[in-house]
Amino acid sequence: MYQFTYHRVDSARKASNLAEKNEDAKFLAGGMTLLPTMKQRLASPSALIDLNSASEKLAGIEVKGRNIHIGAMTRHYDVANSKDVQEAIPALADLAGMIGDPAVRHRGTIGGSVANNDPAADYPSALLALNATIHTNKRKITADEFFTGLFETALEPGELITKIVFPVPSKAAYMKFPNPASRYAMVGVFVAKKGKDVRVTVTGAGSSGVFRAGKFEAALTAKFHVKSLEGISATAEGLNSDIHADAAYRAHLIGVMARRAVNKANGK
Amino acid sequence: MPKVSMTVNGKEVSGNIDSRTLLVQFLRDTLRLTGTHVGCDTSQCGCCVVHVDGKALKSCTVLALTLEGANVMTIEGLATDGKLHPMQEAFRENHALQCGFCTPGMIMTSVDIVNRKGNKLDEQTIRHELEGNLCRCTGYHNIVKAVAAGAEAMGK
Amino acid sequence: MSATGVGASVRRKEDLRFITGRGQYTDDINRHGQAYAYFLRSPHAHAEINRLDTAKAAKMPGVLAIYTGDDIAADKIGGLICGWMIHSKDGSPMKAGAHPALAQGKVRYVGDHVAVIIAETLAEARDASEMIKVDYKVLPAVVDMNDAVKQGAPVIHDVSGNNTVYNWHLGDKAATDAAFAKAKHITKLDLVNNRLVPNPMEPRAAVGDYEPGTESFTLYTTSQNPHVARLVLSAFIGIAAENKLRVIAPDVGGGFGSKIFIYAEETVCVWAAKKVGRPVKWTSDRSEAFLSDAHGRDHLTHAELALDEKGKTIGLRVHTKANLGAYLSTFSSSVPTYLYAPLLSGQYDIPAIYAEVDGVYTNTAPVDAYRGAGRPEATFVVERLIEIAARETHTDPAQFRLKNFIRSFPHQTPVIMAYDVGNYQASLEKALEMSDYRNIGKRKAASAREGKLRGIGISAYIEACGIAPSAAVGSLGAGVGLWESAEVRVNPIGTVEVLTGSHSHGQGHETTFAQLVSDRLGIPIDNVSIVHGDTDKVQMGMGTYGSRSGAVGMSAIFKALDKVIAKGKKVAAYCLEASAEDIDFKDGKFSVKGTDKDIDFGSVALQAYIAHKFNGQDLEPGLKEGAFWDPTNFTFPAGVHICEVEIDPETGVTRIDRWTAVDDFGRVINPMIVEGQVHGGIGQGVGQALCEGAYYDKSGQLITASFNDYCMPRADDLPSYNVGMTQTPCPSNPLGIKGCGEAGAIAAPPAVINAITDAVGHENVAMPATPLAVWRAAQNAVARKAAE
C-alpha cells in the first residue's frame, strides 16, 4: 500500500465533510475490494475515511410498507440471514449469501459493493432488477440511473450512499454461475416480477457492467413462465471474453441462468 | 504514528502503527503471534482467518486501525487452560493437516461454521462453507471429516 | 503390531504445534536488526537493460542498499545452476544459457530479477523500487514453443540460436518403426500437458544472516533440501565455504517440487546480509510466487500406439516439446527426459518404444519439477492412448488393459526401467470392484434421465520413485548422487534422536520415521525425536522429492538402526557377561540366547555411556551410529484410479461423483499418512484436469497471476475418495517401501479426462476441462448425435 491518512468517523455527515476537503480520499466500508486493490498498489487514495464506526447509524434492515430499507454499512452476512429479507425478498437474501465466502460476507457491505459497481459483483443485478432506489447523503437515485458503466456510478465526489430501498417484488430469483477461479459472477441473472413489470438483469457478462436483458423481459412480461424463454437467447455482442468464458459461452449461460431463475422464482 | 488498542486472545494490547498496517501484520509483526499466516494477496486463501467480535474475518483484508476496541481471537487463543479446542483435536485425530500452513485459518473458519450452522453438518454444507479456505496438501477429504467431527464434539 | 509401530495409523507428533499456531515457518523467524528485501522485477518478457539508475531510489527513506547484476558480478557470485546434464541425439551437451541471480544486461521473462532493494521496512523497500529508473530496450518475446523454434524467432540465449536446449531421444527407433510397419491398428493422439503453478500455501521466503565474528553465514529458507541448497550456494554460486554456511529449512508449508530449487532470492538475501551488515528477510507474496516460482508440466506431445491383430500393444512412439521457460532451473532438464520417457511403458508390455523430446526456451518463468515431475506427463500420454485404443477397437477399457498388462517380473522395458515387482491385475480388479464398474451402464441411464451425461475413466499408472541409485542417475547425467543419510543418536537414558537428510514439509516424517525407530528398538514413540532441515545438525542429505523419503530416507535409518543394535549387543554382552554372538535383541530387550538373562535397551544405552564395564579400547563408549543408503534400483509404485463424473451438458459443469484409488506402495508404515498423501495427490491431479492452467499472452504477460484467475481446487470442487491398497513389497530396500507422495497427482489427470471423454462421447477434451471446454465438447456431441 501507499501511505494514506486515516480518518475514523462516526457519521455520514462527518464522512462527507472530510471527503469534500480531500479530493482523492476514499470511503472505507468493508474494504473487501478497496484494500486488496491498495495492497497491489493499484489504488493510492491520499486518505481513507473509515465508516465502520458509523455502522450503528448506517447499518440495519427495516421493513417499511412494501419496501425494505437496507443501510449502506449492512454486511452481506446480515442481509443473507435477515428474517425480514428472507421473507420479503428471498432472492436478495440468497444473493447476499452467494457473495465471496463466509469471511468476506462478514465484512463486506452492500453500500461498498454498490458504490464500487464491479462488473462481476452480484448486488448491482439485484438493485437494477428490483428497481431499487439508492439514497445518498444528498439525494435519491434510481438504480436505472445509478449504474453508469464499468466501476462507474452516478455518485459525485464526496457523495456517500446511506441506504438502499428495495420495493418488494411478487416474484424474484437470482442464479449465479461463478467464475471457477475467483468465484465472482461469470454470469449472474436476476429476474424479478412486480405487478406486470418484469425485469431481467445480467451481471458478470457485460463488457460495460450490469445490464437489463430486454428480449427476456419482453418475453416474460407476456407470461412469467420458463416456456416464454424458449427460442430466446442472448447475443454475444458486448459480452466479455476471457480464459474462463468466451462471449458465446456467456451468452449461452445467460439463457440457462435466466431459465433456471424463472423456474426458481416460480417455485420450481 | 496512530495508536490502536484492542483485545487479542483475552489480553488488552495496543501499539503505535503505520496506518497501512493490516490486522495480520499487527498480529504477526507487532504482537509476534505468528500462527496467523499469509498465503495470498487477493483475500482468497483463508490462511489468515481470525475471529473478530466472534466472526471469522480475513485478517489480511482489514486495517488494524479499523478494529479499535475490537475483540480478536487467533489460533493461539483457541485452546483454553491448556486444553485443545474440540476442532483442534478433530483436525489432529482426522489427519486434516499436512504441511500445517493453511491449518490455523482452516480451524478458525471451521469453528465459525459451527457457530453459524450448528453441530450437525453434512458433507455438502462443509465443502461449501470452506469456499474461502484453500489447502494444497490434503485434497480436503480429511478436513471435511474433521470439521464434521469437530462440530459434533463442540456440541457435547 | 503395536499401537505405535510399523503399520499403525499413529496420529502425527508434529500436529500439536500446527493446530495451535506454534509452527515455525521461515517468515515466522525474525532476526535481531533484520532488514527487508524487495525485488524489482522485469515488467517485460524480453528486453535489454540499456541503463539502470538507482540514485534517486537510494535516497528514499529507510533504504540501506540497492544491488544490481553489476554488484553480483563484481563479487564474483556465480549464476544459478542446472544440475542435470542432458545430451542431444547428436551427442552434444545441452545448451544452457547463463542464469544470474540479478539480471546482467538482459531480462528474459516477466518477473525476472532486475535489482534488490534492502530497507528498514518492506513498504520502504517497495516505495524505493518505484524510484529506480530502468531504460529497457524491449525485444520481441516468444511464449509459444512452436513459435520459439521457428527460424527467425527471437533468440533468448545466444548459446541456443534456435531456442532449443536439446533434442534428446530414448529407445530403439528402428525397432519401433518396424513394429508400426506391421501394426493392424494405430491410435494417434495430440495432446497438451497444461502448464501449472505449484502454489504451496506457504509462499517462498528467506532470511540471510552473517556473523562477522566467525565469518559465517546462516540462511533460513523454504527448502525441501537444505543440504543441496548449501552445496549449490557454496560450491557453484560461491557464497561461502560449506563449513561457513549453515542452511536451515524450518517448518516448510508445502513444496510439491517448487521448493527443491535454488532460486535467485535466497541467494541474494544471504549474500546481501554480509554486504549490508544486517540480517536480510524476503517473503514472497502470492503475486510474486506466480511470476517467479518454477512452474510445472507444459508439454506438447504427439504420440502413436501400435496394436497387432489381437489388440496387443506392440509399439509406441512419442514426440514431445517441453517448455523449459527462460532459464534452466535446478533440475529442469531431467524432468521431461529421464523422469518422463522411461515411464512411457506404463504398466504395459510394449516391446518397442521410441521417444524424442525437444527442450525449448521461451520467455516465460522457468519450468521444473512439480509433484510427479515427468511421470504425470508420461502417464497422461500412455493412459489416454490406451483408453482411446480400447474405444477404437471396441474393447472394454478394463479388459484392454488386462490384456496388455505386464504379468511377469522382473520386467525390462525398452526404455531403461527394470520393473522389479508388481501385480497390476490385482489393483485393477480391486478397483473395478470398489467402483462398482459393472453397473456403470445403469448409472449412466439414471443420469441420462436427469438430462446429465455420466462417464467413467480408468487410469493405470506407474511411477519410478525412491529416486534413486546414485550410479544410475549419475550415468544419466545427474550432477549429484541420490542416496540418503541417517544418524541415530541414543542418549544415555535411552531416548533417541534420529537425524535424517530427508526433509518434511507436510509428509509427517516426525511420526512415520519415529514409528520405525520405536518399533525396531522397542521403545516408546515419545522417546524418539526426528531432527531434520538444518545443515549444522544433520551432516549431509539429499532432501525430499520424488517420493523418496520412505524408500531411501527410512532405509538409511534402518541401516543405522542395524548398527545401533549391533553395537548394543556388544554392550549388552559386557553387561550380561556373554559373547556378543549369543545376544538376541527383541522387543526392546537384549538377552542371552537360551537363558533368562536380559537387559533393556535403556540400560544398555546408559551402560554404553558409563562405559565402566568396557575393557580399554575393545569397545568404544557411546551409542551413536550413522549410515548412508544408496538403493540398487528405483522403486515402482503402481495402481489404478477410477473416476466417475456427471456432466451438466447445459453448463458444462463436471461433478466428480466417485473416486476409487487402489495403489500398491509396497509396505506401508502409517496407513493414515499414506492415504492422506493419496488424497492430496488426487486433489492436485484433479486440479490439473479440471481447473488449473497457467497462461501467458503473446507479449509474455502472465494472465493467470493470482488466485482470481488461476483456479485452485477448493473443497467443493473435489469429491471424497475411496482409497484401497494392494501390496507387493519392494525388493530393493529393507523395508519393502515404494513411495506414495506423487501417485495421486500422476494417476488422476487421465482418469478424469477418460471419464469426461466417455461422458461426452468423443476424445477432443483438453486439460483443464473447464466448464467452457466441457460445454463445447458436450455441444459438439449433441450436434453430432443430431446429425447421425
Describe the structure.
The complex is a heterotrimer of chains A (268), B (156) and C (788). Chain A is 34% helix and 25% strand. In chain A, a hairpin with a 7-residue loop joins strand 13 (197-203) and strand 14 (211-212). Chain A starts with a strand and ends with a helix. With 268 residues, chain A is an alpha+beta fold. Chain B is α+β, with helices and mostly antiparallel strands and 156 residues long. Chain B folds into two domains: 3-77, Ubiquitin-like (UB roll) (Roll), CATH 3.10.20; 86-154, Orthogonal Bundle (DNA polymerase, domain 1). Helix content of chain B is 33%, strand content 15%. Chain C folds into three domains: 18-139 and 201-254 and 259-292, Aldehyde Oxidoreductase, domain 3, CATH 3.90.1170.50; 299-467 and 633-787, Aldehyde Oxidoreductase, domain 4 (2-Layer Sandwich), CATH 3.30.365; 483-629, 2-Layer Sandwich (Aldehyde Oxidoreductase, domain 4), CATH 3.30.365. Chain C is globular. Chain C starts with 14 loop residues before the first helix and ends with a helix. The longest helix of chain C is centred in the C-terminal third of the chain and has 28 residues, at 549-576.
Care to give the gist of this entry?
The complex is a heterotrimer of chains A (268), B (156) and C (788). With 268 residues, chain A is α+β, with helices and mostly antiparallel strands.
CATH C-level name of the largest domain in chain C: Alpha Beta
**Structural class from helices and strands of chain B?**
alpha+beta
CATH class of the largest domain in chain B: Alpha Beta
Decide which structural class fits the backbone of chain C: alpha+beta
Measured by residues with Cβ under 8 Å of the partner chain's Cβ, the largest interface is: B-C, 56 and 59 residues
Count of folded domains of chain C: 3
What CATH architecture of the largest domain in chain C do you see?
2-Layer Sandwich
First-to-last CA distance of chain B? 46 Å
Helix coverage percent of residues of chain B? 25-40%
How would you state the average pLDDT of chain B, rounded? 97
Number of strands of chain C: 28
Instruction: Give the beta-strand count of chain B.
Output: 5
Number of helices of chain B: 5
Would you spell out the secondary-structure blueprint of this structure?
The complex is a heterotrimer of chains A (268), B (156) and C (788).
Chain A: E1 5-8, H1 12-21, E2 25-28, H2 34-39, E3 47-50, H3 55-58, E4 61-64, E5 67-71, H4 76-80, H5 83-88, H6 90-96, H7 102-107, H8 110-116, H9 123-129, E6 133-136, E7 140-142, H10 143-146, E8 147-149, E9 152-153, E10 161-167, E11 171-178, E12 185-194, E13 197-203, E14 211-212, H11 214-222, H12 247-265
Parallel strand pairs in A: 1-3, 2-3
Antiparallel strand pairs in A: 4-5, 5-10, 6-7, 6-10, 8-9, 11-12, 12-13, 13-14
Chain B: E1 3-8, E2 11-16, H1 23-30, E3 49-52, E4 55-58, E5 71-73, H2 86-93, H3 103-117, H4 123-129, H5 141-154
Parallel strand pairs in B: 1-5
Antiparallel strand pairs in B: 1-2, 3-4, 3-5
Helix pairs in contact in B: 2-5, 3-5
Chain C: H1 15-19, E1 35-41, E2 47-53, H2 55-58, E3 63-68, H3 69-74, E4 106-107, E5 113-119, H4 122-129, E6 133-138, H5 145-148, E7 164-171, H6 173-181, E8 185-193, E9 205-211, E10 216-221, H7 226-236, E11 245-248, H8 264-276, E12 280-283, H9 286-292, E13 299-307, E14 313-325, E15 353-361, H10 375-392, H11 397-404, E16 411-412, E17 418-419, H12 424-434, H13 440-449, E18 453-462, H14 470-475, E19 484-490, E20 496-500, H15 509-521, E21 528-531, H16 549-576, E22 583-586, E23 589-592, E24 598-600, H17 601-610, E25 624-629, E26 638-648, E27 653-664, H18 671-691, E28 722-726, H19 743-760, H20 771-787
Parallel strand pairs in C: 1-12, 10-11, 14-15, 20-21, 27-28
Antiparallel strand pairs in C: 1-5, 2-4, 2-6, 3-5, 7-15, 8-13, 9-10, 9-12, 13-14, 16-17, 18-26, 19-20, 19-25, 22-23, 23-24, 26-27
Helix pairs in contact in C: 10-19, 15-16, 16-17, 18-19
